[in-house]
Amino acid sequence: MPQARHLAATLALFAAMATSCRTPTPEPADTAPAQHRYMDALTAVVVHDILSPPVASRIYAYASLAYHEGLRCHHTSQPALLDSLQGFEAPAMPDGQDSIDRPLAAALAFLTVARSLVFSKDSLAALTSETDARLETRPAGVGRRTRAWADAVASAVLRRAATDNYRQTRSMPRYSAFDEPGKWLQTPPDYADATEPHWLRIRPLRMDSAAQCSPPPPPPFSLDARSRYARELREVYHLSRHRSPQMDTIARFWDDNPFVSEHVGHLTYATKKLTPVGHWVGITGILCRQSQADAHTTALAYALTTAAVFDAFISCWDEKFRSRTVRPVTVIRQHLDPTWSPLLQTPSFPEYTSGHSVITAAAATVLSHLFGSQHAFEDTTEVPYLGLRRSFPSIEAAADEAGISRLYGGIHFRAAIENGKEQGRRVGRLFLPLAPRTER
User: Fold this and answer.
1) pTM score, two decimals?
2) Quick one: 160 and 182 in the same domain?
3) Per residue in 165-188, pLDDT tens?
4) Helix/strand/coil (H, E, C) string of the chain?
5) Same domain, 322 and 428
6) 237 domain-assigned
């Protein structure tokens, strides 16, 4: 009998070991929300640095991918997420894998990548020092291997970032706008140069090219009252004169303009706010917390959502600077009402397609796949900035409202919103094979 009990115990031990090689070891419950704090810290830096939405998307994506790879369970038989994206060479798992503190490695890799890409590196210094101090409390061997794995992950991500053409676009010429019928011109009140006119040259993560998910061309510019363009122009103008209080709230809630300038007499001041990608990073965190997602699911949600948004901006900017469509404020002032202004300040880039529609549809496609198509939630992301919150019956409903908010705000035509939404869905669907579906 003792021998039988010993044999049974031995078999049970081998079974447990085999299972551990197939299934990631569960993280302790208190590690699940750890990434939220790091993402919130990065958002604070993005807001402080007044980064443009495309640039912000790049930083969020690379930092989130570093966190996910750092956390990746060494027992899993599935390939690294980086292996399914273009331009990465995932690091080989080091010796002594069992003694790596993976949550800590993920945090260290995240911070290394984030600090390499933001301007205000000192803004993350306190969190970096705190994380380094945690590393010093680990046994020497664990600390050494954890740091080595974090450095390997960060190096793999930063090598890719160094070859995505971002650096080259910094020295490319500014966009030249000419007064052509239907083509973009700088808009009031600042008449700023076009934002990131060469972003289409950034190497995508999942798309095979910037043009893979291109939308149909915009309606041809025409002031003929019977044309679709003229009808959509009148729609923007009519809504601005008959906008309901709810439309006003929706437009302001989804504004997400990182730098809004206010002109009062001879004084000019600015308000810093979230970028559109920062808003959807916030929504991702809300969905993870609400679903009580573990550390691995949380890391995957952040990584795939930000990666989809990264590609969505490339796709959108490719179309914007191909069609170069004029903004409503320019046409309305020239042909309908010289004193007209939209509710929202018009961003400094061409109109078609709507960036909000593209990136929110891409994010919503990924998040609906991860958390379910009927996942109701309350969006509290804007509470610190606007004091506003809104509830939605589904993730898709939130994306739809974000898109139509641009019409209510007077900065987009309907075609840019509707076609942009489908463009974003196509981008988002490219990332769905990389994640299991969870219907909740």
Assistant:
1) 0.90
2) no
3) 999 999 999 999 999 999 999 999
4) CHHHHHHHHHHHHHHHHHHHHHCCCCCCHHHCCHHHHHHHHHHHHHHHHCCCHHHHHHHHHHHHHHHHHHHCCCCCCCCCHHHHCCCCCCCCCCCCHHHCCHHHHHHHHHHHHHHHHCCCHHHHHHHHHHHHHHHHCCCHHHHHHHHHHHHHHHHHHHHHHHCCCHHHHCCCCCCCCCCCCCECCCCCCCCCCCCCCCHHHCCCCCCCCCCCCCCCCCCCCCCCCCCHHHHHHHHHHHHHHCCCHHHHHHHHHCCCCCEEEEEECCEEEEEECCCHHHHHHHHHHHHHHHCCCCHHHHHHHHHHHHHHHHHHHHHHHHHHHHHCECCHHHHHHHHCCCCCCCCCCCCCCCCCCCHHHHHHHHHHHHHHHHHCCCCCEEECCCHHHHCCCEEECCHHHHHHHHHHHHHHCCCCCHHHHHHHHHHHHHHHHCCHHHCCCCCC
5) yes
6) yes
